[in-house]
Batch of 2 targets.
Target 1
Amino acid sequence: LLDSKEAAMVKKSKKDMIIVKISRVISAPKWKILRLLTKVEEFHEYMPSVKEAVIIKKRKRRFWTRWHIQVDNVPIHWVEEDVFKFPRPEISFKAVEGDLQEFSGNWRLHDHPEGTLVEVTVKMVVGIPAIKHFAEQYIKGIIEKNFTGMLESIESRLISLRYAGLKKGDKQKVAGFGVLGHFYNYNHMMRSMKQLNKHFKPPSREFIHKLLEVTPSFKIYDMQTFKSKAGVTTNGRFILCTFIPDMVNFNTQAVYSKVVRACKVAEKYGVGIVTLGGFSSVAGERYGHQIAKEVDIPITTGNTYTAVLAVDGIAQAAKDLSVKLKDAKVAIIGGTGDIGSACARALAEKVRWVTITGRTKSNLRRLRGELRRRHKAVIEATTDNKKAVIDADIIIACASVSSSILDINWFKPGAIICDVAYPKNVSYMDTSRKDILVFSGGLSSAPAKIETGMDMGLPSQKVTYGCFSEVIILALERRYENFSSGRGAITLDKMNEIRRLGTKHGFGVAPFYWGDKLITKARLEHIKKDARIAKQKANKAKK
Ligand SMILES: NC(=O)c1ccc[n+]([C@@H]2O[C@H](COP(=O)([O-])OP(=O)(O)OC[C@H]3O[C@@H](n4cnc5c(N)ncnc54)[C@H](OP(=O)(O)O)[C@@H]3O)[C@@H](O)[C@H]2O)c1
């Protein structure tokens, strides 16, 4: 029983009590988190706010620990008594001395479908007269920051340990693939949002752009099982990088941070390997190999298989339109890029003439030199896209640009144009030419449906991007490695290897599509006929 003086003090302290509650779902079992929480003396190594945490006494399930934390340059010291309670599990703590008048709380761990829900509750009384009103709110903020930071650090620590195990060859702790995707323009973003809510009324562009800019990348969809033709299964996570390609040009650093964050989201789920889809690879690669230093998860750009699909796609198209590949003149727009240079290396073995284009003259000169030394085809390089395509039989368009750069009227009758780029190098809008074949290159057919949780701009669920296919193939093979990495490093050996693995699992060149329209065999026959007529007309006009 309390005497009246003590009871009054308890009542006053309850009135001044500040309560902070923080929680986080950590993708790890309870016992792993508990094991970290008991290693108090290691906290200062990976928790930035913890300057000192030492065990000063132990007795059965009771510990006495001394703490020194520092947030925003404010140091707080205390000694607490901790009690471990099983089987819940729970750790309760209560300061027995220190800077705060009262300081107690608990850590509780609960099962969660994605791992463990960790809840921290802190109760405290700051109790400093005169500056009480300011100090209470200020210290509340500091305690919130400290415990939020501790939870983040625990999660990062568990992730680092998991991927450190992978680097040593332990593939048991990770699984599946991750795909980083993004909206490919404003209209695509609006369409996707309307799909989620058909009553959605688009606000101003300015507003939605700003909102997208500040929204962190997040997981949008879980693919539970993907089964290949060879009967092997894997699973996947689709992560939305919250940018549109325009942003890469005026704020590359922000886009890059979104790509890093998206990789970290994949790490949180213990994904084995991720691909940087579309422009996320352009943003990632713009910083060279830096991204590999910032994240632990193996990354592949998907560009090797995309290049395979482009090269195999034009071989298929040439066959369909009776164009002899060995006599063909090929133009590769964006030929100095990662995909473009891989296509150039592969085609310089097979065709009569290759022209590469790009914006940077020194890159053009370097690649032209390499190709001329190694291959038998005539090799040309230019910054003039029109000059390159005007008399080309086959065009692979893979320039990273945010709007179309190739005019449909530049192509000669019967030309085959494989547009690998996103956004497209040839505008979808202009369909006036009936005598040429324009199709979306770098697309693959898949052995099973691929659901992504949002409109990925694909014509069918069994058709997917080369970069998605590459990461799925690697996950099926449990090849958790930086398969396609860097820029301009894709070799013919690697292309052959991923082509072989793709075939084994049931991937291959997709039927030809332009936008969401399938180009039928009958349409190919019409193109052949119209090209013949157009060529005859042109020849007559010349005479
Ligand atoms: N279909 C798929 O599944 C798939 C998969 C991955 C990527 N992609 C797409 O493929 C494209 C290329 O990707 P990447 O990784 O190879 O890109 P990359 O390495 O950045 O190369 C881009 C190339 O485009 C050139 N370029 C830029 N502007 C140009 C212009 N106005 N005229 C001519 N060339 C220009 C660049 O030349 P400079 O270096 O001189 O500027 C460079 O050669 C991107 O659009 C990407 O979204 C598609």
Target 2
Amino acid sequence: VDVAAYGWDERWERTLTGRGGGTRPARVLRVDRGECDVVSASGVERVASDSVRAQGELAPAAGDWVVLDGATVGAVLPRRTVLVRRDPAKAELAQVLVANVDLVGVVCGRDRPFRIGRVERFLVVAEDGGAEGVVIATKADHEPADDSWSDAAAELAGTRLVMTSARTGAGIAELRRLLAPHRTMALLGESGAGKSSLVNALVGEERLEIGAVRVGDRKGRHTTRARELVLVPTGGTVIDTPGVRSVGLWDSRDGIEQVFADIAELAAGCRFADCAHGEEPGCEVRGAVAAGRLDAARAQRYLALHAELDVQDQRRAEQSWAVRRRR
Ligand SMILES: Nc1nc2c(ncn2[C@@H]2O[C@H](COP(=O)(O)OP(=O)(O)O)[C@@H](O)[C@H]2O)c(=O)[nH]1
Ligand SMILES: [Mg+2]
Ligand SMILES: [Zn+2]
């Protein structure tokens, strides 16, 4: 196997040489319970991960480049990009979704309403992790579920929107161009949105299992159970993920400022440097809303995401205080 097809390049080579040890780089395809499927020059193999890793060392995630040590993961190479969310089970912990992705495809089925708030959350996670977010509308062969789709492009405020259909093949060539020659795209979105179908369309064969959507509520069943990296024959790789309706943000203020760059720019002009864009005099954000230059709902979503992180910061501060007191 040519690891270059999976994204290995001179920069990774230098990273490896810089570390001095290890000659067998491999990319993590999927992780389950202490074991990983990895691909290296010698092909795909299943290696052990958890049992051998020292505490405090990075746990491998799909997309990671690792150095193999026999049939185990020796070390995880420093990540170029990483998608992190709040752990759905433990709000005080961060969870790594995938590593080393260049692009994040936020997948939305046209058979359901377009929910800008959820899409923006995924985009924040992407930008915060150093990846470029694109929105992929699937099932373009399908009538849009409702009017929410007519404003989608405008609401995305500049983020690329690709219309696709796994059924007719629409938009697939455009996605392939985005992936070539050796880029990696993670697909995020709710169950039943059409992520696995998209991967199959990109690969050109039925690689992944597709879930039937229940007729009544259009909800998908969770057919995809692990995050999995797949090679696209026309260049690049995609990582399919199990469906998530939404993501909780983890420490991603930079991501918010990037996704809402228009508002961040306005905010820089507020009279007070720490303006909360509430009742303060000289607030450019509120001013822009009042003047009709900024959509009030968009400003509201921006403030709500920051407020969510405020709560999180508070929680973490209380926790570290409690830990210190116990000591
Ligand atoms: N009409 C139509 N249905 C699609 C398309 N892509 C996927 N589907 C259907 O949507 C359902 C969920 O697809 P799947 O790929 O498993 O979604 P995932 O849960 O996001 O991976 C399946 O019933 C697919 O047949 C498409 O382009 N057009
Ligand atoms: Mg799936
Ligand atoms: Zn302000």
